[in-house]
Amino acid sequence: MRPFIFTKPATADQALIKKTNQAQFIAGGTNLLDLMKKHIALPEELLDVTNALPAAITANTKGIRIDAMVRNSAIASQAEVLSQFPLLAKAVLAGASPQIRNMASTAGNLLQRTRCPYFYDTTVPCNKRIPGTGCSAMDGDNRMSAIVGYSNQCVAVHPSDMCIALAALEANVLVTGRDKKQHSIPFKDFHRLPGTTPQLDNNLPANAVITAVEIPGNRFQKNFAYVKVRDRDSYAFALISVAAALHMEAGVISEARLASGGVAHKPWRWYKAEQFLKGKKPSAENFRQAASIAVGETKPLANNKFKTVMLQGAIETALQNCLTA
Amino acid sequence: MGFFDDTISLSAPPEGRVEATAKVTGSGKYSAEYEVASLCHAVLVGSTIPAGIIKSINVGNARQVEGVIDVITHLNRPMVPAFADEAKIKEARFGLPVFHTDKIYFKGQPIAMVIAETLEDATYAASLITAEYAADQFNVDFEKSYKNAELKTAGKDRGTADSWAETPSVVEAEYTIKNEVHNPMEMHATIAHWTAENELKMFDKNQGVNNVQRMFAKLYNIPAEKIHVVSEFVGGGFGSGLRVWPHCLAAVIGAKAVKRPVKLVLTRPQMFTLVGYRPESWQKVKIGADNSGKFTGILHQARHATCVYDNFNEGITRIARLVYNFANLRTESATVPLNLSMPTWMRGPGDCTGDFAIESAIDELSYKLNIDPVQLRLQNLALEKDPDSGKKWSTNFVDECIKLAAEKIQWQNRKAAIGAISDGDWKTGYGMAVGMWNAGRSNASAGIKMLKDGSITVQTAMTDIGTGTGTAMQNIAKDATGISKEKIRIELGNSNLPPAPSQGGSTGLSSISGAVAAAVNALKMKLAGFAAAENDTYKNVVGADIILSDNGISYKTTNQQFVPYSVIWEKNNLQVLEVEASSAPGDERKQLAFCSSAAHFCMVKVNTKTGKIKIEKMVCAADGGTIVNEKAAANQISGAVVGGIGMALMEEQLIDPKLGTAIGNDLAGYHFAVNADAPIVEVIFVNKPDVNSNPSGSKGLGEVGIIGAAAAIANAIYNAIGKRLRDLPITPDKVLMG
Question: Which of A274, B245, B333, B644 has its CA 20 to 30 A from that of A227?
Answer without folding.
Answer: B644
